[in-house]
Q: What sequence folds into this?
């Protein structure tokens, strides 16, 4: 039976975190080194957590599949990081950041967690500035801000268009310093394959060394998953090629509840698809929407070049539909609106799946130099991929799978329902509800890693009373044998199709039936299509090479195999949630104007799923969402 | 278009490698170089042969994982571009393309086109950080930084740590990589307390890893996908000299 007690402290919202910090048990400084913590993933959340836990004196081992912890996909975040500093004197506050985040998430996140996120946001900026992160500055030397979707204040800190890179390199610097001190043992090119429970408590992991193929067990007093999101399920996404759900999914199979998997963010400003060869989609920061205006021709099938279409024949549809937020409407709304105009036949580009993002007015107003300074690297990136000059002709954009709000269920302490298993960053479900606002992922990853987990971890270690265990235990041996069995099986199939071709087919099913718009019939269709494709995968793939080698095709096969099981879980969740909320748009549940219609009476809860067996419907558990402070309102950006 | 590839294949660090020729057929000009390799690999896998192993991850030019020498040039002939952002429209139908791994003594080949760049991490470990622990930092605006200093720091900080500078240097020097980090911090007030210590320790670490020295050929700047300027090497050398005074 799954226990979904959120352990949120009582008392007024603004005092919960302080009170909790005062009440948590501490670990004596000289005892900290006796505890070992395994941190899987070294992006913003994992990197910052591993570094900070080591700074506190714990014994840390960190794992990443890349060749260096500096390469995790947090690095690709462009636009910025939110904080409630109110440096612009525009009326921002912790409460406003909290409220915008809750509202942006369409009232499907836990109040207590989100409030805490807003509270610690300011400390993140302070710490990153102290680390030497080169944030953008005003001429007077103070920090600059820009505005982002879903907010009416300027609270986003940035470092050109490379904010994620700079924040990650900051966390990496802290981490590498601890590696140098010997406080963190780093395992690069190493992928977690299995979670190990001893007496129901997470006590270790099994990894595969991606260079030698060696399958190894690691034991710890706590396991932290910071393994990111599952957007690559859709085959085409803005994720890095290696991003995968394996670690989180393996934890789910061992009893961790998976919460809200259907909340998948489709990002509005990506570069459109050009053909079947495409391996990924490239996102351009939505900060572009600060100065770019989004439009399509008013006429269906208008094939004129964009600059030949006169002003009065253009439809600036976001400005028309949402006058107060305009081009800065939240991501889900912007994406859906783009799909709508393309479905109407007004899309642009060769395949008609694109809308214009036009900087002509801003260039007229601010000059091309200012636009270059703000977004130069994004225009360069666009030019490299499309060979078109965004300064002269409008860019073409289209939505793509980007971020996944769902993830492993965690309580207020960021611990899953499996004792000892902590989950942070994108890998957990906790803070973004049904839709994440721009510049909030970096905030959450670093909040979890620098300022929340380091406190709550102490409480776990101080109270858990863990027996000593070693990797000789049968639980470890069995997990190793399972991993070894899976590797051998994948290598033995010798079928006729590549892993990639299966992944592409699975992604097409998901995009078609469980993408931006979802309905009962389509979701049921997906549930019919996935199992036979999975069966064929397990009969007909071919993976050359050996398990004891660096084998990139084998790595891919293992990840796709888990996606094949995970896909069904996501569809079950989408089918079960018959309301529309945030990124999850059920076509049956919309207002007369075509906006998402929530059903608070029946769906104001977190859906946490319990594994029951491959191909079987998982069990649904509900954590009710109680709103003590905010009023549930219709989310309006008009 | 159709191309002929000559690719370095090497089973493991101990094995003797060799160039192997493969055709690349029906390549679209809209593909990236790595997507072209994906197609070649799909064909190899279907034939039961092991695909060409190469490092890649973000495929949007920022993670620094991809690392190929194409026709003798690290990341290929397009300026300011990583391989993953190099598109096939820059190649001609019928062209012959050689593809090799980064070649430098401190970067041993692990397999085919994948090399071990952990030496770069060890240089960072020697001093590529500001020693602050989480918690206790002063308000971020308590320490104003002149905009031009912050911009210069950011120019240096743009380094993605791919190692192209090393691969293109006849001395296999990591000085552009290292100076980027040293100068990011040297241009910020936060970096001052450890400035001299940092440059001494990082240079020593670079030497210990077997990287060479800079002899001012500037091949590194020419291939750097982020177009990091060699001015930072000059600045670092100045700091290094001052550090011993």
A:
């Amino acid at each position: 039976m799954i226990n979904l007690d959120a352990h949120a402290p009582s008392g007024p919202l603004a005092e919960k975190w302080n009170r909790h910090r005062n009440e948590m048990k501490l670990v004596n400084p000289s005892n900290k080194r006796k505890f070992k913590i395994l941190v899987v993933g070294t992006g913003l959340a994992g990197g910052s957590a591993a570094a900070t836990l080591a700074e506190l004196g714990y014994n840390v081992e960190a794992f990443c599949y890349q060749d260096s912890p500096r390469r995790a996909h947090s690095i690709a975040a462009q636009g910025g990081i939110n904080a409630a500093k109110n440096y612009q004197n525009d009326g921002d506050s912790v409460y406003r950041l909290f409220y915008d985040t809750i509202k942006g998430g369409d009232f499907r996140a836990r109040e207590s967690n989100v409030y805490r996120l807003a509270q610690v946001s300011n400390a993140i900026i302070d710490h990153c500035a102290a680390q030497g992160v080169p944030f953008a500055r005003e001429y007077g030397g103070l920090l600059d801000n820009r505005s982002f979707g879903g907010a009416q204040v300027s609270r986003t800190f940035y470092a050109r268009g490379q904010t994620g890179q700079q924040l990650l390199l900051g966390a990496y610097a802290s981490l590498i310093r601890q590696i140098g001190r010997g406080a963190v043992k780093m395992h690069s090119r190493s992928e977690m394959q299995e979670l190990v429970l001893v007496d129901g408590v997470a006590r270790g992991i099994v990894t595969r060394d991606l260079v030698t193929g060696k399958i190894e067990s690691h034991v710890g007093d706590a396991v932290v998953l910071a393994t990111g999101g599952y957007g690559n399920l859709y085959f085409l996404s803005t994720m890095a090629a290696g991003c995968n759900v394996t670690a989180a999914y393996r934890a789910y199979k061992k009893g961790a509840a998976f919460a809200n998997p259907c909340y998948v963010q489709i990002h509005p400003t990506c570069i459109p698809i050009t053909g079947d060869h495409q391996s990924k989609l490239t996102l351009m920061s939505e900060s572009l929407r600060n100065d770019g205006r989004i439009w399509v021709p008013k006429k269906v099938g208008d094939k004129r070049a964009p600059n030949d279409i006169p002003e009065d024949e253009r439809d600036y549809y976001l400005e028309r539909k949402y006058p107060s937020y305009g081009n800065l409407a939240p991501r889900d709304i912007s994406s859906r609106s783009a799909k709508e105009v393309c479905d109407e036949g007004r899309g642009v580009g060769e395949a008609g799946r694109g809308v214009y993002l036009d900087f002509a007015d801003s260039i007229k107003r601010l000059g091309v130099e200012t636009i270059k300074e703000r977004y130069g690297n994004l225009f360069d990136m666009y030019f490299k991929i499309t060979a078109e000059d965004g300064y002269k002709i409008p860019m073409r954009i289209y939505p793509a799978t980007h971020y996944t709000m769902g993830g492993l269920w965690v309580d207020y302490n960021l611990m899953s329902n499996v004792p000892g298993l902590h989950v942070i960053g994108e890998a957990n479900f906790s803070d973004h509800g049904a839709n994440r606002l721009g510049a909030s992922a970096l905030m959450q990853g670093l909040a979890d890693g620098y300022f929340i987990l380091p406190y709550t971890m102490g409480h776990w270690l101080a109270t858990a009373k863990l027996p000593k265990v070693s990797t000789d235990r049968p639980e470890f041996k069995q997990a190793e044998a399972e991993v070894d069995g899976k590797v051998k099986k994948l290598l033995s199939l010798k079928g006729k199709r590549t892993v990639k071709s299966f992944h592409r087919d699975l992604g097409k099913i998901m995009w078609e039936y469980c993408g931006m718009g979802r309905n009962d019939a389509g979701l049921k269709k997906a549930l019919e299509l996935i199992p036979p494709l999975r069966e064929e995968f397990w009969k007909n793939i071919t993976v050359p090479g050996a398990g004891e080698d660096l084998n990139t095709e084998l790595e891919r096969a293992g990840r796709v195999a888990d996606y094949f099981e995970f896909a069904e879980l996501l569809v079950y969740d989408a089918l079960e949630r018959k309301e529309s909320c945030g990124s999850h748009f059920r076509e049956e549940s919309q207002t007369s104007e075509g906006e998402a219609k929530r059903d608070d009476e029946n769906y104001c809860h977190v859906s946490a799923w319990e594994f029951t067996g491959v191909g079987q419907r998982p069990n649904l558990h509900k954590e009710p969402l109680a709103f003590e402070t905010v009023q549930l309102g219709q989310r309006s950006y008009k | 278009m159709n191309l002929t590839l000559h690719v370095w294949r090497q089973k493991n660090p101990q094995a003797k490698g060799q160039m192997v020729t493969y055709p690349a057929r029906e390549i679209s000009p809209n593909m990236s170089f790595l997507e072209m390799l994906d197609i070649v690999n799909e064909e190899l896998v279907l034939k039961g042969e092991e695909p060409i192993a190469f490092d890649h991850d973000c495929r949007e030019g920022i993670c620094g994982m991809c690392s190929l020498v194409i026709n003798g040039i690290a990341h290929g002939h397009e300026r300011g571009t990583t391989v993953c952002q190099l598109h096939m429209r820059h190649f001609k139908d019928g062209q012959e393309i050689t593809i090799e791994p980064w070649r430098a003594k401190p970067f041993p080949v692990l397999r085919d086109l994948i090399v071990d760049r952990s030496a770069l991490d060890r240089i960072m470990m020697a001093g590529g950080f500001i020693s602050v622990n989480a918690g206790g930092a002063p308000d971020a605006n308590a320490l104003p930084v002149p905009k031009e200093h912050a911009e210069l720091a950011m120019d240096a900080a743009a380094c993605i740590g791919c190692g192209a500078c090393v691969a293109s240097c006849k001395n296999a020097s990591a000085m552009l990589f290292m100076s980027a980090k040293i100068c990011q911090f040297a241009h910020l007030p936060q970096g001052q307390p450890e400035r001299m210590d940092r440059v001494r320790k990082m240079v020593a670490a670079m030497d210990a890893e077997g990287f060479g020295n800079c002899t001012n050929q500037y091949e590194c700047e020419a291939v750097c996908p982020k177009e990091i300027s060699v001015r930072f090497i000059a600045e670092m050398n100045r700091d290094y000299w001052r550090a011993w005074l």
